[in-house]
Amino acid sequence: MKTEQKDMRRRDFLKVLGAGAVTSAATLYGCGDNEKTAGNAAANVGTRGEADGSQMTYRTSKCGDKVSLLGYGCMRWPMTKDSKGEDVPDQEQINRLIDYALAHGVNYFDTAPVYVRGLSEQATGIALKRHPRDKYFIATKLSTQGRAGQKVSREFSIDMYRNSFKELQTDYIDYYLLHNVTGEQAYRDRFLENGMIDFLLKEKEAGRIRQLGWSFHGQQEGFDWLLSDACGIPWDFVQIQMNYVDWKHASGANVPAEYLYGELHKRNIPAVLMEPLQGGRLSALPDHVVTTLKSRDPEGSVASWAFRFAGTPPGVLTALSGMTYMEHLQDNLHTYCPLHPLTDADNAFLEEVAQLILKYPTIPCNNCDYCMPCPYGVDIPGILLHYNKCVNEGTMPESSQDPNYRKLRRDYLIGYDRAVSEKLRQASHCTGCNECTPFCPQYIRIPQQLQRIDKFIEDLRQGRPF
Ligand code: SF4
Ligand code: SF4
Fold it and tell me: How far apart are CA 386 and CA 407, in angstroms?
């Protein structure tokens, strides 16, 4: 394919999904400020030396694959600048991370046409191609997505499907997902009425897809329908959002993970987990929550609690982690080489921790970038993640009567300027057009949140008392 055609294809894919913002190297462990994030991650990683990859815990899929409990989420690859100053995946670092992961027992790599500005599949494919094909499983997705009620064409979908093979340099996909299905109507618009589901089932028969599933963000009615006889597809696996807070306390219109997992488990459908760390929020916790976790397991990292929770239920096939830094990968390897399952008492303890976390008024943004690009250039995740970081760190200037107000105000404003990507814009540029909201899997009312933050910023800038 000619380069310009390929670029056009990427742009089209991104436009349809609503993705495509410059994804920073913000990590699953942190909240968007890269240096700070790396520091936090390092602080939360134990000092236990190198994990023994031969001890990796594996689970068995429907077709008998031995899948590592730690799955590599390829949504947040490290970035670097190319010769034109553009952000591009840092292929050298990616190769190093994938080599290390494979050498330590990780064999499941989850990507999508829209991850990393549309460059994840290619970068992942380059790194994996350097290893024998039978040493790893590739998961990727049909990322077509339009507005509610928007039909997606068969040609466009097949084009996206075929391009995944090209980018990943493979002639079969091990785990293929319908990406981010929200319910019956979305399934009909994107996969049923255009004949794509029949096409994919034939591809499976032909061996080019080994296992077929879907990833879910939506409401219970839609989830139930997708598993029902009315939908009628014998799914091999389903990808759900699950962590120890969302287990009982899913945000917005999302369904508690306890229900999602339970429905899959009783049907014997393996669950692939996304957001086991809530997009990093469960490792960037307030100090007293960290102290609570450390008091029960001084050696374990804060993140290890979340991954042990994710890995304990037997119906979990793999838990995906977007490990941007080697420290994250090494820490997670310790957690799963081998997994030490949580006891009932541990689970009760984590529910108490979840209650502590819920007291903090963070915005449930997972830094997924699905809301981007904003047509007015607003850096939605950058703004929300800076806000969350200050809430969690206890550095919000909450009252102009606070003795520390001047320092907190200054730090918030400086941090805000830094948090917003240099090529994007601050909350004051939000027009309230609402283009972004339908794409948010966490059901955040984005313009309302941005307007609230913008008013807060303006009060701080003007020094208005509050
Ligand atoms: S509502 Fe605001 S943030 Fe969302 S797309 Fe419109 S301008 Fe951008
Ligand atoms: S606002 Fe929603 S869509 Fe945008 S990055 Fe956050 S979680 Fe993702």
Answer: 17
